Amino acid sequence: MGSSTNNDNLTAAYIDHIAVMRVEGRGSFKISPPMKQFIHQVIEKKSADRIVIDMSDCTGMDSTFMGVIAGLACLIKSKPDLTFKLINLSEKNRKLLVTLGVDRVVDYSLAGEKDTDVENCQICDGKILEPDFTDKLDAAKTTLEAHETLVDINPENFSKFKSVLEFLEEDVRNLSGK
């Protein structure tokens, strides 16, 4: 595993023209900011034509992680030269995506399904993307944006996250001094 003390790790590598990430442990608010940053770098530098997240070692996902995934999926759909997919998704994690409506916007394949384009995407010499716990404002903005995305893709999520959104909006205001 990586050096992260919480055992939630995100490893990234390039295999041919595919940016591949692997989630180990939980897909959580802790690994969401570095995941988002890495994918934005891939988009800006046009360093890959596919982005794949291997979920075979992912034990669960929180709402921030799913909101970031949804936001990235929506962004990438507007980029005709780029595709984005979750692979090796467990049935448990698929149900989590369905619960919040994220399955409506993200492409995925379940564990055991043949996915010929990404079947051999094994990360051998990947780099662990460490979360930056010092940038509290960036973390708060990422979390707020993730939850706003969840409401955008499924308005029924508003009642689930109303108090979370209010708290995060206040947190962002306080941290940014506005």
Give a verbal description of the structure.
Helix content is 43%, strand content 24%. The chain has a domain at 9-131: 2-Layer Sandwich (Transcription Regulator spoIIAA). The chain has a six-stranded mixed sheet, covered by helices on one side. With 178 residues, it is of the alpha/beta class.
Large-scale geometry:
globular
* Major sheet: arrangement of strands: 5-4-3-2-1-6
Looking at CATH, which topology of the domain at 9-131 would you report?
Answer: Transcription Regulator spoIIAA
Q: Could you give the distance between the termini?
A: 40 Å
Q: How is the biggest beta sheet arranged?
A: 6 strands, mixed
Q: Topology of this protein?
A:
Blueprint: E1 9-15, E2 18-27, H1 32-45, E3 50-61, H2 63-77, E4 83-89, H3 91-100, E5 107-110, E6 127-128, H4 136-153, H5 157-176
Parallel strand pairs: 2-3, 3-4, 4-5
Antiparallel strand pairs: 1-2, 1-6
Helix pairs in contact: 1-2, 2-4, 4-5
Features of the shown structure:
178 residues; alpha/beta; Transcription Regulator spoIIAA; six-stranded mixed sheet; 5 helices; globular
Summarize this structure briefly.
This protein has 178 residues and is of the alpha/beta class. The protein has helices spanning 32-45, 63-77, 91-100, 136-153, 157-176, and strands at residues 9-15, 18-27, 50-61, 83-89, 107-110, 127-128. Strand 1 and strand 2 (18-27) form a beta hairpin.
